[in-house]
Design goal:
254 residues; alpha+beta; three-stranded antiparallel sheet; 8 helices; 11 strands
């Protein structure tokens, strides 16, 4: 049977692809790439370990231009993130205006979730802590159709956007997304920018809108990105995961 699903567990961008050409772009030149093709959705899901969407239907009228995917600038206006204080001392009031005040040294955990990857309901979350580990606030939100990688990126972007107050901070990020962590620590992001937002394989970088937005809000700060293994009981990783999945569930069509 012809293969209809290509699952990339390790590659430039992990995920599910529906043609060999798309899959090939994500594994070519990536050391130790892990990927496999399947003829049926059930086989692909069994190997991937999570639900996936069926292949998109072919366009009926090829002449009709495809509607471009919304960018982060559009999505953050339509589906904004919101913060909830865990420590009320983080909040001050200037007249009737609420203002969030955070210290110059922070620990931030982030996570993203997509109920069906790709194009299923997604959610993202962040937890802010002091350098000593005291809880400050949570931030979360979601979108009706996204991907795991986009939700991981949006979690980091929204967390740093919240800190756009002119203070240069020292921040330790904890994420279970190697896609996010390695893009920073392995300098993929730097190389993408230098190469005009093309990968080493000379293909356009996926999720450019979010990478560019994240790059802007990262610039003022001193950042360290650390990977943490997901779903092993790490308190704030689990908290982010629960919040992100809860946000995604708000968009689930029962």
């Amino acid at each position: 049977m012809p293969k209809k699903y290509y699952v990339v567990k390790r590659g430039h961008h992990a995920g599910v692809y529906y043609s060999w050409s798309d899959c090939q772009k994500e594994v070519t030149g990536f050391p130790g790439a892990i990927y496999k093709g399947f003829a049926t959705q059930a086989e692909a899901e069994a190997w991937y370990g999570k639900p996936i969407a069926p292949p998109p239907k072919a366009a009926v009228h090829a002449a009709i231009p495809r509607k471009p995917a919304p960018t982060i600038e559009t999505l953050e206006k339509k589906y904004p993130a919101y913060a909830e204080p865990m420590d009320i001392s983080c909040i001050s009031y200037d007249g009737k205006t609420e203002r969030i005040i955070l210290p110059e040294t922070l620990i931030i955990y982030t996570d993203g979730s997509c109920l069906v990857n790709p194009n299923g309901p997604g959610g993202f979350a962040a937890v802010f802590l002091t350098a000593e580990g005291s809880e400050l606030l949570t931030l979360s939100g979601g979108e009706p159709a996204s991907t795991n990688n986009r939700m991981e990126l949006r979690a980091a972007y929204e967390a740093l956007k919240l800190l756009d107050d002119g203070i240069r901070r020292t921040i330790t990020f904890h994420t279970d997304s190697k896609y996010l962590q390695k893009a920073i620590t392995n300098r993929w992001l730097y190389n993408w920018k230098r190469n005009g937002w093309l990968t080493a394989a000379k293909t356009p970088v996926s999720n450019q809108d979010l990478w560019k937005a994240l790059d802007r809000v990262m610039t003022p700060h001193r950042l360290t990105f650390e990977w943490v293994k997901g779903h092993v009981g790490t308190k704030y990783n689990e908290m982010c995961d629960t919040l992100a999945k809860g946000e995604a569930m708000k968009f689930k069509k029962w």
